[in-house]
Design goal:
The complex is a heterotetramer, with 2 copies of chain A and 2 copies of chain B. Chain A is built from 13 helices and 2 strands. By secondary structure, chain A is mainly α. In chain A, strands 1-2 form a two-stranded antiparallel sheet. Chain A is globular. Chain B has 10 helices and no strands. Chain B has a single domain, classed as Ferritin, core subunit, four-helix bundle (Ferritin, Up-down Bundle). Classes of the chains: A mainly alpha, B mainly alpha. Chains in contact: A-B, A-C, B-C, B-D, C-D. The interface between A and B is large, with 50 and 50 residues. Chains B, C: This is Ring-1,2-phenylacetyl-CoA epoxidase subunit PaaC. Chains B, C: InterPro entries: Aromatic_CoA_ox/epox (IPR052703), Ferritin-like (IPR012347), Ferritin-like_SF (IPR009078), PaaA_PaaC (IPR007814), PaaC (IPR011882).
């Protein structure tokens, strides 16, 4: 009781909880779920963009894309480490992913169909992710907050790079402009859905807010994202595929159309265009890599035994 | 090598050989991105690939500057045909054992590691020597590349030892990859008019002189990995002279498809 | 479908859908050439592929004739981008289970057979109906294609039964392939403005009306093969409307690379 | 003794030996070796040309190439059947191929590196093969002779198609002409080596001649091939890569340069550029196909048992 009171006081005072501190079991579980899901998203998220590395149309863009996908892997790595401070191993988390018990961001269950998808993922998907993640930099759990600070910095860089790549394409040929518009058409609504269901329907929000894990509601974040993105789209010269999108001077925000939540839930529940392919590819990589990990372990053990023998 | 060949022609051809090596292996290593055996290896392969693409860009930029006209790093990488590429055949092979160009099978990490080992063991020596090239730009690229390549060599060597001195399966896979790839290293030492001319005027290095040092690096690592050095005999590939395997055409078809579908476009 | 759409536009789009189906599956089936499980199957796949390429040529020729200008069967096959292709997504998938576009693994003959079965079961019905198309050329192509497709269906069905009612392994592989591919058949019955318009004026067939007959062919074969009919649920692919999977881009990059490297050349 | 005398008399009279006839064991063995090697060559020979099916630059050429590779598979099929009449099974022959005990034509151990290789293989490789094979249509062993009649007819068709494809390319762009010349440069000498070592060094020729299996010597066939090909090369407008090639009016034949027999023997002995790749690809196809063949067998057995049960 006293521990809980102290914990709640620290949260209320916007203090940080650290791994060695006492925490309620539900808080720990919620964080493990959220951080590992975020880590899985980074790892699965390597695949849609990785799909274009081999075909990047210039060496400069190839290098930028490899570096970006590498950063995503790196984010996955720190996030797994942050989750490990809560008493779960990477192997357990991967097992949960591979067996379908753990989720990852549903946005990665859509295919990347043209080169502009790479830029649009940077601009819109990373943009939406940053909106979701910036509040997490002030999250109550220290290791997660610190990981998010680093991740948000890199993500902002990726977002600018994505936007810049699209600007170049929009100044190019008609075929290039068509690619950008096609990519925007396919990704726009999916990005809006990334903020999660409307606040009224969102089960985790209230508790998350109280614990200082979540700090801004889904609908607020979505509106913020739209308000920030519309002017960028205008500069770029693309049309956002929503006829209802327009400035509402009374609200001081853009109004927007209805999100297709059926499609969203279908994909979240495993029936998007790429759910099976993404997961099966990760499982295959893991299984194919078993002998490599085994070799490293066996060698390390042999080394240790040799060292012990020499010491004896 | 005709009598009218200038040092500029030789420099261009020699830089292309170095650049093509880097771009082709960079392309291959990046194929692991998202498919590696453990996240850290996805990152390591991406890193190595980035270094190689970076080396290729610097080298192509130097080449383009000497060719003049509309030539850019990207016209060199994207608008030359396979017969114009001057990379070692070793570097264009897919990540698996010996199969024809249109076979399909799983990627094998042992093949990747052994190739990176054999190649980076050579390149630490090549870049070291090229730091003393009479061409200042090339010498500068060599100095930068040497640091990167030392890391590539350490990475590949560490894994070679882990695989060789790991489990029975990993040992067998590493040995099979070595048996498959070692014959391709004969190409390192094979005659090449461009290399000879480049060495003659102090631009390049006579790779043959590096062989004892390369042998020592290889033997030392194989001993630690408890692997048997495979014979480097049989057919001597000629990729550096423009005669490739059935694999390069497919690699370039994929790498170049988008750029070629939009000739002249800026990205 | 805008109000200004003419029957010529619809005819062109409808012929392209049929032609793209044939060329993409023909390309896939030919990948087995030299790699089949037994010589007779190399020959059978080559034969099916030849029939499909032949169908594609006739259909593209008809399309080209209606488009006029410099359009030929080859500009249609080789110089359109993936978003312009109108084939069923099912037909562009590689010969293995669900993986992303740049994964690599062995080819699986069960996937090949199940796909050929599901598709040719539909196409015997489609071609049969199209024999009564108001377009005489299409009706003639349908009559020829029907004969070929009956053979393709018999071939695939025979193997489906052998695999399903063969060994435990072959049963499991056939079932896995069916589970993987069956959801893609939803696209057969999905709305398509082009198909609707083509059916409306007697050029095409309303594919939805063929569904009971297709179900009967499938159920009958699966019963004999002792396989469980997998659910055709979840995401409905949209290849016939131009929205493809990650696989088509790679297929076309390879198929088109040589033709596009030599624009305007005659072969 | 009497059997042998009758056999030799039949051969001397240019008669045919049929499967049910008595034959010397050495004759049987020689034929099995030769026919199965020929069958293996057809099967392995599908790979170099198969390499270009997916990239054929027009649908017409794609169809022609698929049909051609299919014909090669068909030739392999009849030749295995012809060899089976001598009391060996296809499985035994394949096993000999896959284990490296049986050979196949060394010409297929070179890679196909550009599209013109397909035409040049038709023109030169098939052309050389036909020169070798036409005498076999009169071979003393009936099933082999009949198979060869059909095969030679189809091969001649392929040769004309290959030559025609090259004519079209030579009338095309400079890049197309360069492809043809490059392919001719790579294949010419290898085709001359296809006729086998000079007569002086050829171990099998004498016995083969006596038995009516081989009817014309290596060097005679090679000369015949060169004499037929040089004028075709002139019409085509390609240069055959032999500076010593010139008409010798005294001999009534073309003189030609030295064949690199070291390279030939190196390739025959397993060290060509593609020996491992060709064989490993065939072995992989066979191994990967095991479950398919097993399924067919298992199903056939089940069918048979059901038929027996119904009959009982």
């Amino acid at each position: 009781e006293e521990l809980l009171a102290r914990f709640e006081a620290r949260i209320a005072a916007d203090g940080r909880i650290e791994p060695q501190d006492w925490m309620p079991e539900a808080y720990r579980k919620t964080l493990i779920r959220q951080i590992s899901q975020h880590a899985h998203s980074e790892i699965v998220g390597m695949l849609p963009e990785g799909n274009w590395i081999s075909r990047a149309p210039s060496l400069k863009r190839k290098a930028i894309l490899i570096a970006k996908v590498q950063d995503e892997g790196g984010h996955g790595q720190y996030l797994y480490s942050a989750a490990e401070t809560l008493g779960i191993s990477r192997a357990e988390m991967l097992d949960a992913l591979h067996s379908g018990r753990a989720k990852y961001s549903s946005i990665f269950n859509y295919p990347t169909l043209n080169w502009a998808d790479v830029g649009v993922i940077g601009w819109l998907v990373d943009g939406a992710a940053i909106m979701n993640q910036i509040p997490l930099c002030r999250c109550s759990y220290g290791p997660y907050a610190r990981a998010m600070i680093r991740i948000c910095k890199e993500e902002s860089f990726h977002q600018r790079q994505g936007y810049e790549a699209l600007l170049v394409m929009m100044k190019g040929t008609q075929a290039q402009r068509d690619m950008v518009q096609d990519a925007v058409n396919r990704w726009w609504w999916k990005c809006l859905a990334m903020f999660g269901p409307p606040d009224a329907d969102s089960p985790h929000t209230a508790q998350g807010m109280r614990w200082g894990i979540k700090r801004i509601s889904n609908d607020e974040l979505r509106q913020k994202f739209i308000d920030a993105t519309v002017p960028q789209a205008e500069v770029l010269g693309v049309t956002l595929p929503d006829p209802d999108l327009k400035w509402n001077p009374e609200r001081g925000h853009y109004d927007y159309g209805q999100i297709d939540w059926d499609e969203f839930w279908q994909t979240v529940n495993g029936h998007g265009p790429m759910n099976k392919q993404r997961l099966a590819t990760r499982v295959k990589a893991h299984n194919d890599g078993q002998w490599v990990r085994d070799a490293a372990l066996a060698h390390a053990r042999k080394q240790q035994q040799r060292a012990l023998k020499e010491a004896a | 090598m005709s009598a009218t060949t200038t040092t500029t022609d030789v420099t261009i051809d020699y830089l292309l050989h170095l650049a093509d090596n880097a771009v082709v292996l960079g392309q291959r290593n990046a194929e692991w991105c998202g498919h590696g055996p453990v996240i850290e290896e996805d990152l390591a392969m991406a890193n190595i690939s980035l270094d190689l693409i970076g080396q290729a860009r610097l080298l192509y930029q130097q080449t383009a500057a000497r060719m003049g006209g509309d030539v850019t790093e990207d016209t060199l990488a994207y608008f030359r045909d396979d017969t114009q590429f001057r990379n070692y055949t070793l570097l264009e092979l897919p990540h698996h054992g010996p199969l024809v160009g249109y076979a399909r099978t799983d990627r094998d990490y042992a093949t990747t590691i052994v190739r990176n080992f054999l190649y980076s063991a050579l390149m630490v020596l090549v870049w070291e020597a090229l730091q003393r090239s009479c061409d200042d730009e090339l010498a500068a690229i060599a100095a930068k590349s040497l640091k990167e390549t030392r890391y590539h060599l350490r990475h590949a060597r560490d894994w070679l030892v882990r695989m060789g001195d790991g489990t029975d399966e990993s040992h067998a896979r590493a040995q099979a990859a070595l048996d498959h790839l070692m014959p391709y290293t004969q190409e390192f030492w094979a005659d090449s008019p461009v290399e000879a001319a480049a060495a003659a005027f102090g631009l390049g290095v006579d790779v043959k002189t590096l062989r004892p040092a390369w042998d020592a690096i290889v033997d030392d690592a194989l001993a630690e990995a408890t692997l048997k050095r495979s014979a480097a005999t049989g057919y001597v590939t000629q990729g550096k002279n423009g005669l490739h395997s059935e694999h390069l055409g497919y690699l370039l078809a994929e790498m170049q498809c988008l750029a070629r579908a939009h000739p002249g476009a800026q990205w």
